[in-house]
Amino acid sequence: MKARPISRLSGWSGSGKTTLIKKVLPCLIGRGLKVSTLKHAHHGFDLDQPGKDSFFHRAAGATEVVISSSKRWAILHELREEPEWYLGPLVGKMSPVDLVLVEGYKRDAFPKLEIHRAANGKPLIHPEDPHVIAVASDTALPAAIVPVIDLNDVEAIADFLIKHAVPIDAAEALARS
After folding, report:
1. What is the distance in angstroms between the CA of the first residue and the CA of the last residue of the chain?
2. Quick one: which of 25, 91, 169, 175 is 20 to 30 A from 85 by CA?
3. What mean pLDDT is reported for the chain?
4. What are the backbone angles phi and psi of residue 114, rounded to the nearest 5°?
């Protein structure tokens, strides 16, 4: 099985994580990389819609519902009172790619790039979280003890994400240490 190196982008809600991923994905793909994403959601979410067959299947109690068409397929898995899955098993379900960008999991003990936007009014996660290895910010952070990357410098952020990608098993070993 091909390795699935991950790079994590974390930050408070409203910091611009998704906006940054939308900008950096074309940059990474333009460099010839095959990239997937994994987004953590704090609450329940739906990919299917009420009134659709897949919704009825899931609502009736199916543990997994596979939806397939000529354009895409998806698996919806209901945990049904099981604990939330950890990052490693989730990444293990994904197809092999050159890089998996993980958005969220800001409290988990994995190396991460913190996204910080001053207008968001939230404090830095760094330096309280020792797993933040750099901050991408729209403002200077002279007190930072990790590298700070201009949030608008997509090429530099892409370089950083590639350079600091960690295979999922290594990231999990770091989390346990």
Report:
1. 25
2. 25
3. 86
4. -85, 135
**Nearest one of 151, 142, 90, 91 to 119, comparing CA atoms:** 151
> What is the SS3 assignment for 173?
helix
Supply the pTM of this predicted model.
Answer: 0.84
> Is 129 in a helix, a strand, or coil?
coil
Q: Could you give the CA distance from residue 68 to residue 22 in angstroms, rounded to a whole number?
A: 25
Whether the Cβ atoms of residue 106 and residue 171 lie closer than 8 Å to each other = no
Beta strands 166-167 and 5-10 are antiparallel
What number of other Cβ atoms are within 10 A of residue 151's Cβ? Answer: 22
Torsion of the alpha carbons at 130, 6, 136 and 154, rounded to the nearest 10: 170
Residue-wise burial string across 114-143, b where 16 or more C-beta atoms lie within 10 A, e elsewhere: bbbbeeeeeebbbeeeebbbbbbbeeeeee
- Specify the 3-state DSSP secondary structure of 20: helix
Q: What is the pLDDT of residues 59-115, one digit of tens each?
A: 888 888 888 889 888 888 888 888 888 778 888 888 889 999 998 877 777 889 999
